[in-house]
Amino acid sequence: MNLRVTRSRPWIWGFAAAALIWLVILAISGQGGGQTLSLALSLAPYLVIVGLGQMLVVTAGPGNIDVSVAPVISLAGFASVAVSAGTGSALAGVLAGIGVGLVVAVVSTVAILGLAIPPIIATLAAGLVASSVTLHLAGGFTAVPDPGLRELLNLRPLGVPALAVAIAALTWLTVVLLRRTVYGRSLIAVGQNRRAAERAGVPVSRVIATAYLLSGALAGLTGALLATYIAPSADLGTRYLLDSVAVVVIGGTLISGGRAVPVGVWGAALFFILLDGLVNLVGWSTAAQNLLKGGLVLFVLFLAGGGDRARSTAPRLRRRPRPAAATTTTTGDNSDG
Q: Per the record, GO CC terms (predicted)?
């Protein structure tokens, strides 16, 4: 694959890895790949939603990460199903889930920007509070997800999940947000050089706060939809913490900030979903599954960014400046002449 193309389109590696895993599944199972791909497209959107939010936070620059997404997904799932069952409105339930995410994000943002607490600590603390509330709600919880919304989430016109189409549209809107709006350009600028952005008049605190609020809202949306698709549980969002960070990085977004690749989140999400299907098909133990996942993730990360990092850290030869004494002598000679 042309290195120049992959540098300009870092999302290629995630899709390439997903295609490779898909081919391996076909070779092992010996069945058609349409059903496997359709299942992957049914599960990947949930990871893409939370991944897009995590991407915005990571893009804000070094140290920015939202580790509260997993507890938010779990809590939002319970809140959404409870409100939906109590009001009879699926929309009210989804909005309740988003509201939960926003509340937790506000707590994190105040701690980060108002109290200068490191993001990983602030979001971890907010997540622990959310986890405590979730455990309280889980005891004796009897509400059931809205059947109409569940039917909608399972809708597959022409074999393509309707949710995948909707989240593809959300991904496109995220691309527009980053490329065509003042906020998107400001977020990229803050991620590349926060001090320079401040000097240029960019409202840095507002930009960062918005990123965390969007991440919280998207995590809440994920929880509301996922709890309806599966069922609310205290560990509903557990796997989405590490996965949300991994799909961001594998998708081409710089972990140091300043570059966001929304399309890459899709490729990386498909890679993870198909990888889960592969290890389940093979029947490996949990330890072997984690070993395979870790090895493949590191391999894709190396392909996606290892070469660039090596080039950026390689020493460069610089021309030695002319000695000051020699310059003075030359200038003196010219003056004398």
A: plasma membrane
